[in-house]
What we know:
Layout: H1 17-27, H2 29-49, H3 60-71, H4 75-88, H5 91-105, H6 121-158, E1 163-168, E2 171-177, H7 178-197, E3 202-203, H8 213-218, H9 224-234, E4 238-239, H10 250-279, E5 282-284, H11 303-326, H12 336-341, H13 344-362, E6 365-367, H14 369-377, H15 384-396, H16 405-413, H17 420-428, H18 434-442, H19 452-456
Parallel strand pairs: 3-4
Antiparallel strand pairs: 1-2, 5-6
Amino acid sequence: MTSLPPQPLSPLDGRYRPAVAGLADYLSEAGLNRARVEVEVEWLIALTDRSLFGTSPLSESHRAQLRSLYRDFGQAEIDWLAAKEAVTRHDVKAVEYLVRDRLSTLGLDAIAELTHFACTSEDINSASYALTVQRAVTEVWLPRFRGVIARLRELAQEHRDAPMLARTHGQPATPTTMGKELGVFVWRLERVERQISASEYLAKFSGATGTWSAHLAAAPEVDWPELSRAFIESLGIDFNVFTTQIESHDWQVELYDRIRHAGGILHNLATDIWTYISLGYFSQIPVAGATGSSTMPHKINPIRFENAEANLEIAGGILSTLAQTLVTSRLQRDLTDSTTQRNIGVGLGHSLLALDNLTRGLGEISLAQPVLDADLDTNWEVLAEAIQTVIRAEIAAGRSQITDPYALLKDLTRGHRVGGTELAEFVRALDIGEDAKERLIALTPAGYVGLASTLVDQLD
């Protein structure tokens, strides 16, 4: 059997690439290398801005030319780095050589020795990962996540007053509204969104073991910790002053755990919507030309929610592994984080794919209110809670001599279907006040939703 032409091994780079391509700008190998070049270049500019070691601040023209190394980073640089790394067997060293090569081209050989000055690879890497992950999350993942929340909020408000039978333990329970139940997910997801939005993206810049030893040997008069802080913060990320050779990755652990948590809530949403579809509460809007089943022409399968469910599980597993692995580094440094962090894009990619499917799925469903109404009308026994609670209130007020109202209603309704007429007759025979009887007789399952509708208003 002949070999296939080169193919992507991961479905994220094949079948699903259109849905996740935005992440590749940041979390691919090329995206990481572009960020490394950015850090190396900006460090050069920072050192010359301080006129260290006899240098002078660069002209605006030279600054622009240097910054074009990462702003215009493209296939030529990708190929150059691949060829150089094949020789160096070291990815960050290859980046350093690229910057030195371009400095020579620009006639800036005089500052070439300040390239990667006093840096360990992890100074460059920690800043580069902070930049790439920050940009991937804030510019790609979070907007898609917020889009799901916004669509859910629209549905919650649209179905604010749509009564439906609740199902606790899968069994008929006190009615609610579809809007309120979707609003619960909005409320939960917005809380996690606030936590993710407030995430720190930390980097170190303190040398081989986090002590600025080489820096001080070269220039003991310089306040290197403050210079490093100012440099890292100038990149738009946060500074970690107290580290080993590596930045400790705790911010990554926190971020991936929060995104995994968001995924858990979304997984809950996907399975709930799937169940509502199976109950007939939501109908799926046919998509022109789409096939639901290869053999059953009538079917519209809830594939968006099933796809989301599966990808959230994959994302959760990868993100959990990232968090578990990155929290530990043996002594002052081991290399387990290096290969682990190369899978950040895979974890976020499956999460982003799930968000894409949820967005599309939530846009292709329509509430079937007649189904909800019919379900409510065949479950009048859910009013037993209201009746026994009113009886208790009447007993407390001295208007009833009934003993154990819970048992009374349990005997009437548990395991039995009870209709509206039967409940009305039961209520009329109760030893309670007339006002209470009138309220209970007027009550229907569809009207027994408490404050469900007004709770939705709190989403605003």
